[in-house]
Amino acid sequence: MSTIADKPTLTTTETGAANSAELATPAAHQLPPADPVAEAPVVNRFSHGNETYAALVWRRFRRSTMGMIGLVLTVALLTMAIFGDFFAPMDPKRAEIAFAPPDHVEFSAPDGSFSLIPYIYPIVETGEFDPITFQPMTGPDKTNPTALGFFVKGHRYNLLGIIPADIHFFGAVDGRPIHFLGTDKFGRDILSRGIVGSQISLTIALVVVLLTTTIGTLVGIASGYIGGRLDAWVQRFVDLVLAFPQLPLYLALASLIPVTAPSPVFIAFVIGVMAVLGWAQLAREVRSKTLALARIEYVRAAVAVGSSDWRIIVRHILPNVSSHLIVAVTIAIPSVVLLESFLGYLGFAVKPPLISWGLMLQDTGTFSVIGSYPWILSPVVFVLITVFAFNALGDGLRDAIDPY
User: Fold this and answer.
1) Which residues have CB under 8 Å from 243's CB, separation 6+?
2) Could you tell me if 274 and 147 lie in one domain?
């Protein structure tokens, strides 16, 4: 009978050799040693995996329904402004019947059957009187239809200011005058004037925002990065501009411009006044961003290795501020459009023969006119659509660029 003491035992050396033999594998099945440098992932702060930063922003932006609606409306407004004469169905300076009501549009033929082609029926007096006010009653004239169509011939114009053309996007097939939104006090088509007037209104807004963004960015970055006494003096000046009452200044400056001043001079004056009073708020915002970025590690590292101030601002601070600037621009444009319309209502607008939304709103200054001819408020619709489009676009961009 064997006991535990009778069993052979292995020494430590023999045990290690046995374990090594058990763990040994053929050379053909062994994997090569991993290269830590080759397997290290490449980190790019402008990409997400294989996705660039721009593609990442676009993917986030597409999830915003309101942002996409704002983008479509913004592109449509800019296209309408660039090719305003092409989209205008009537000559914006042609005078017809004053305060004519909007024409009646129906998808029905004169015989009453359904038609894919819409027809215009002018509004005329029916010969009856209202039993309460005894005013003449009006209605569509079914005996005088006008077929609508696309790419029809109309008044002549210069496309982009240089190409003579007479083709319009839509209008009457037979060239008869049509008024979808009625006419103003001089008998001019409101819809055509609103489309063409977008050129002046949006141009003023874009130029003003370009100037205010440039001035505000330069002042804000210089004030926040340099700091010290310069920052203190600049911020006190910004406080003065922000505290200045703008409306009395606009009205005072409007009286300084002579009535006989050329229209380009007047537009330049309007743009200059808006730009001078509109850059301060953006400068304050950019300064706060710059103060926060100047304390980040990679900026302090760039200062430690001897990078110039210009390189630090251009390569490190400005790219990180650009996301805020993009959103600020899209939000500032509708503010300028509203300001131009409001000033036009007060009389501080472009002079004829130029057309702008602010100039068109001057006709709404009398309450009796609004009560009798409410369609002259139609230019407000252009302003509302523009404000909604740029605000929706700015809100979508803000969520896409900085989701946190």
Assistant:
1) none
2) no
Helix (H) or strand (E) holding 175: none
Tokens of 379: 């230019």
Tell me if 378 sits within 8 A of 181, measured CB to CB. Answer: yes
The span from the CA of 285 to the CA of 385, in Å, is 27
Largest CA distance in the chain: 135
Question: Domain for residue 14, yes or no?
Answer: no
pLDDT in tens, 159-173: 888 889 989 998 888
User: What is the token pair recorded at 254?
Assistant: 């409007």
Helix locations, 244-312, DSSP H = 246-256, 263-278, 280-293, 297-304, 309-312
Give yes or no for a contact between 373 and 182, defined as CB atoms under 8 angstroms apart.
yes
* DSSP character string of 331-391: HHHHHHHHHHHHHHHTT-SPPTTS--HHHHGGGG--HHHHHH-GGGGTHHHHHHHHHHHHH
Q: DSSP alpha helices (H): ranges in 32-135?
A: 36-39, 53-62, 65-82, 84-87
Q: Yes or no: say if 188 and 95 are a contact pair by the CB < 8 Å rule.
A: yes
The string of pLDDT tens digits covering residues 59-81 is: 888 998 999 999 999 999 999 99
Residue 178 and residue 204 in one domain: no
Residue after which a domain boundary falls, among 148, 164, 183: 183
At which residue do the structure tokens 């969520």 appear?
399
Would residue 30 count as lying in a domain?
no
**CA Rg, the chain, in Å?**
34
The DSSP bridge pattern shows strands 47-48 and 114-121 to be: unpaired
Shared domain check, 76 and 134: no
Is residue 225 included in any domain, yes or no?
yes
Neighbours of 402 (CB within 10 A): 12
* Matching residue, tokens 């042609």: 94
User: pTM of the prediction?
Assistant: 0.77
Residue 209: inside a domain, yes or no?
yes
Q: What are phi and psi of 87, to 5 degrees?
A: -85, -15
CA proximity to 328, closest of 236, 402, 226, 245: 402
pLDDT > 90? residue 215? yes
Asked if residues 88 and 196 have their Cβ atoms less than 8 Å apart, the reply is yes
Domain that holds residue 360: 61-82+192-401
What CATH number should be reported for the domain holding residue 223? Answer: 1.10.3720.10
